């Protein structure tokens, strides 16, 4: 009797173990058994991606001590399969990037080409985003969202099924993501009454007003002689991550902020009307030590510029950062006090 019970328990335990292992895998059984549905979802996804004139937004989370989500703006040309990407991390290169929608693997999938910003985000890892693949299962399509899920949850041996992103249509008032660069220190005259001018930045945390503060700040120019060293430390630099790409050479500006008992000039990247405080593995004053301190102190790793207003010698600039839904949760107001 004991022997019978032993084999019975062993058999039941084996079934439970197999079931628990199976739960870790995405089988796509529904799509496999309903190929018409798979083709329908793929067709709907392609039509929906083409319908957003201003593109779509993925909000990704970093592994940093940052309360904000990073916007990735994607525009899909469904005629040529060209992909146009804008991020706060750096200027997009002129190299062409592509995407495709396929139904050949059991579920409709959205696939981005290697060497693009989308595949670069996957290769750099948690420092920049929670993206874990350049292949995504299309898991839902509605009138205003396209839900995609990273095919893998990590490296090639990790279980299937990563983060689900509900892409939404880019808000019309996100002017920073349009073609005009109005926050650009390389533009003629932009640095007038800004570079080298003692200034003030007011920080407003929309959901946590107790964190609001005003800091002494200011921008100053980065010497051309330092650019090579700083660019070599860029997290998406091809020499650091084989297979990365999609970014143009980076540009930096010094930004003063309180550091321990003094002030410090960190060097964020400016691109696409935004400042990126993403720590670099190496470089100049934008390395891990200083930028990690900045993020731990202020709890954001980027600011997008909403407006630049000049009145005589006075310059005011409005910045913001977003939550998972693309809502503003951090506001920053720059004033040169002139």
Automatic annotation (TrEMBL):
Organism domain of life: Bacteria
Signal sequence coordinates: 1-19
Keyword vocabulary terms for this entry: Signal
InterPro entries: DUF4302
Protein name, entry field: DUF4302 domain-containing protein
